[in-house]
Amino acid sequence: MLKLEHVSVTFHPGTQLEKKALTDVSVTIHDGDFVTILGSNGAGKSTFFNVIAGKIPVTSGKVFLDEEDITEQKEHIRARQIGRLFQNPAMGTAGELSVEENLALAYSHSQRGMFSRAVTNADREFFAEHLKTLDMGLEDRLKTPIGLLSGGQRQAVALMMAVLNPPKILLLDEHTAALDPKSAHKILEITNQLIKQEQITALMITHNMKDALENGSRLLIFHDGRITKDFSGAEKSALKPEDVIHFYEV
Ligand SMILES: Nc1ncnc2c1ncn2[C@@H]1O[C@H](COP(=O)(O)OP(=O)(O)OP(=O)(O)O)[C@@H](O)[C@H]1O
C-alpha cells in the first residue's frame, strides 16, 4: 500500500519563480490497484511520480510504503521497491550494453542492491524464458546491443527489466507516448499482461484518454496540483471521454 498524506511541493519558494506543483495531495493506492492518471499539462502528474520515487523532496506532508515512512528515503534505495518507466525507452536502459546485460543490471540491483552486468547461463535461460512470454522474438536477441532495437522493442525490454523482480509499485510515466500506434498498443497489452501476471500495483500517466479509460481499475484526474477526481469500479467503467474532458477544467 502506498499512501501520500497532505503532500505539497513548491518549487523555488519565496522567489519570483515560486511554483506550487502539488497542493495538499492525500491518496491511498491499495495493493493490486492499476491506476491511470490524466490531467492537463502542468497539473502536477510527474511531480506526483517524482515524490513517490524520491526524485524530489516534499515541501510538506508524508509518504508511506506499506506503513513505512519513506518520506526521507533516498531515490536509489526506493528504486529497489519502486520501478519506473519513462516516455523515452532510452532512459533506464544502457544503449551500448546488450539486452541480457541490461536485464542482468536490473535484476542484480533489485535482488541484491548492487549492479552487475555479468550473465550466467542460468540467468540467460531465465531472461529468455521471460522475454518469450512477450511474443516479440526478443529471446533471440539477448546479445544485441539494446540501442539497436526499435523503440517498442526497447520499451518492452525496459518493462521486463522493471518487473523481473516485481516491484511493490510500478510507475509508468507516459511510457507509450513516443511509440508508433501499433507498438504503443503492443506495449500496453504487455503492460496489462505483466501487471496481471505479477500482481503489480501500478500507476500510469497518459495523455491518451482512451487508454486511461480502457485500462486499469481506478482513474485519478489531476488539476492545478490537486487530485480533483478519483473513479474506480463500475463508476470508472461507465466513464466516456466526453465526461472526462469536462473534469480537466473543474
Ligand atoms: N524542477 C522544477 N522547477 C520548477 N518548476 C517545476 C519543476 N518541475 C515542475 N515544475 C512546475 O510544476 C508544475 C507541475 O509540473 P509537472 O511536470 O508535475 O506537470 P505534469 O502534469 O506532469 O505536466 P505534463 O503533462 O506537461 O508532463 C508545472 O507548472 C511545472 O512547470
Largest sheet: 6 strands, mixed
Radius of gyration: 18 Å
User: Helix proportion of residues, in percent?
Assistant: 25-40%
| Class by SSE composition | alpha/beta
What is the CATH topology of one domain?
Rossmann fold
| Run of helices and strands | EEEHEEHEHHHEHEHEEHH
Low-confidence stretches: none
Bound molecules: adenosine-5'-triphosphate
Query: How many E strands?
Result: 10
Shape: globular
Average residue-wise pLDDT: 94
Span of the ends, CA to CA = 28 Å
Strand order of the largest sheet: 6-7-8-3-9-10
CATH architectural designation of one domain: 3-Layer(aba) Sandwich
Strand percentage lies at: 15-25%
Write down the CATH class of one domain.
Answer: Alpha Beta
The number of helical segments is: 9
Assign the CATH superfamily of one domain. P-loop containing nucleotide triphosphate hydrolases
Pfam family, one: ABC_tran
InterPro entries: AAA+_ATPase (IPR003593), ABC_transporter-like_ATP-bd (IPR003439), ABC_transpr_LolD-like (IPR015854), P-loop_NTPase (IPR027417)
GO molecular function: ATP binding; ATP hydrolysis activity; transmembrane transporter activity
Protein name: Putative ABC transport system ATP-binding protein
Overview of this protein structure:
By secondary structure, this protein is α/β, with parallel strands linked by helices. It has a domain at 1-72 and 201-249: 3-Layer(aba) Sandwich (Rossmann fold). It has nine helices and ten strands. The protein has a six-stranded mixed beta sheet, with helices on both faces. A four-stranded antiparallel beta sheet has the order 2-1-4-5, covered by helices on one side. A hairpin with a 2-residue loop joins strand 4 and strand 5 (68-69). Helix 5 packs parallel to helix 6. The protein is globular. The two termini are 28 Å apart.
